[in-house]
Amino acid sequence: MIKRFCSYYKPHLKLFLADMLAALLLSLCSMVYPLITRKMLKDYIPNGQVKLLITWAVLLLGIYLLKYVLNYFVAYYGHVMGVKMQAQMRRDVFSHLERLPLTYFDNNKTGTIMSRIVNDLMDVSELAHHGPEDLFLSVVMLIGSFFVMGSIYLPLTLIIYALIPFMFFFALKKQKAMKTAFSDSRKEVGVINATLENSISGIRVSKAYTNAEHEFKLFNRGNERFVGARKRAYKTMAEFHSGMTICMDILRVLMYVAGGLFVFYGYIDISDFTAFSLYITLFISPIEKLVGFIEQYQNGMTGFRRFCDIIDSEPEADAPDAVPLTNVGGDIAFHDVSFAYHDSKEVLHGFSFSLEKGKTLALVGPSGGGKTTICHLIPRFYEVSAGVITIDGIDITSVTRESLRKSIGIVSQDVFLFDSTVYDNIAYGCPDATREEVEKAAKLANIHSYIMSLPDGYETLVGERGVKLSGGQKQRVAIARVFLKNPPILILDEATSALDNVTEQMIQQSLEDLCRGRTTIVVAHRLTTVKNADEILVINDEGIAERGKHEELVAKGGIYAELWNGMKASITVA
């Protein structure tokens, strides 16, 4: 794990080495001060060497000015290095997220993922900067102080340094408890973020059902768990800090008692004892840094482990010999396909059908039969458990996912629009398209006139998830997006089921224009939208219950006829 963490220093090695050099010079500057003080007390002041006293005072001032420059360098460029490493980690994790299968997002909440990318990596950044610097400074100052203090009087130095092993033993003993506490705390932060994301996204539902109090209870439950986790973390931190503090206080007492006795019996003089007192401060400073480092290490590495959990998740992978899917005609076939979500009951079992290029296939039937699953399997959002799906006779597992998905356009019931402009949302279908091509796609989707009526035209912001547009307008933007993509295969998954009848009729013409010349699979509950399909499959829990054209299925008097007659009756009553 540490080796993996250190690999992120590689692109910033020059800056890292400069930061370490500045830290080394800082520690050396700090160690010079007690030596100069000892020389002044022992020689210059008692012997009246004013000139040397002033010379060394000027030199000391120069050292302080150098420390100012070095401190600025470490504080600024050290943090810049940490932020750059954090940015690289964010790029890596975001790039990896884009390649993860949908099953990962089915099993992990959005708020939890965001917590790992934002909150956790902030602490990783602090560790990246301060960790090596504090550790390096502490080691240099401890070793340097030992040799300088030993040159003054070795027995007193050994007495003081004898406490260090006990202090580190205590620190290591508490390390495991801190690791567990910080890990639990991180998890609860993720839970709170997930709850917040869920509640804010569903604020309209909450208001509609006047469930503010219920949402508050849900949030507060997670908030209390977070408080409990943080209390446990702070308890281990308090035990750690208080334990280390009393060790350092005992060290001071030991130094004053032992040093006082050595002065009393004439082993050292008062100037040596004064220098020792100053070095004790320098000795305690790296110990405090090490204490802080241990806490920061646990915090940062906990975040890094959670970051690695995402990075180590298995991404979508093409077959080693996968080739791009080119010159797509659009013939689609399912050959004895079976599929189940997350080891649950099979949604599809031995499912087979074929669809010629340019034709339209409609999937109808009760919910839970697997209609949407079929739509998800064609672009390989999920992998089949058994069987083969082919396009133009080619097994889709033998082609690259990117080329496969570029050949497929999808319009679903739940249209997702990005929090950007109308133009950006349409252009998402083909980011390299020209403005003329974007506007042409909008015209084909019959939304150009509406867009031009907006105050900012195509530059109008649609809000989060397109909240500033109506359902019909969002659907037309989605249709325009697919027009711009211009794929040979089209999937309409309940594309109009969330719209009222009037809006549906207005959009139906746009959909018919979109389907023309493309291989199309339509999933719909409203049978009026599929009666002109070249073939209709009626799907239930058992698989394909009926198949044929609209007129044939109505005449057959089976499941489809019941659905059709029931729909007509409801329209008559309305």
Question: Can you walk through the features of this model?
Answer:
The protein has 18 helices and ten strands. By secondary structure, it is α/β, with parallel strands linked by helices. The strands form two sheets. Strands 6-7-8-3-9-10 form a six-stranded mixed sheet, with helices on both faces. It has a four-stranded antiparallel sheet with strand order 2-1-4-5, with no helix packed on it. The mean pLDDT is 81.
The main sheet comes to: 6 strands, mixed
Compute the gyration radius: what is it?
35 Å
Continuous helix count: 18
Percentage of residues in strands: 5-15%
Question: How would you briefly describe this protein structure?
Answer:
This protein is an alpha/beta fold. It contains 18 helices and ten strands.
Quickly list its features.
single chain; 574 residues; alpha/beta; four-stranded antiparallel beta sheet
In terms of topology, how is this protein built?
Elements: H1 2-6, H2 13-44, H3 50-98, H4 102-107, H5 110-161, H6 164-201, H7 203-208, H8 212-264, H9 270-311, E1 332-340, E2 346-355, E3 360-364, H10 371-377, E4 386-391, E5 394-395, H11 401-406, E6 408-412, H12 422-427, H13 435-444, H14 448-453, H15 471-485, E7 489-493, H16 501-515, E8 519-523, E9 535-540, E10 543-548, H17 550-556, H18 559-573
Parallel strand pairs: 3-8, 3-9, 6-7, 7-8
Antiparallel strand pairs: 1-2, 1-4, 4-5, 9-10
Helix pairs in contact: 2-3, 2-5, 2-9, 3-5, 5-6, 5-9, 6-8, 6-9, 8-9, 13-15, 15-16, 17-18
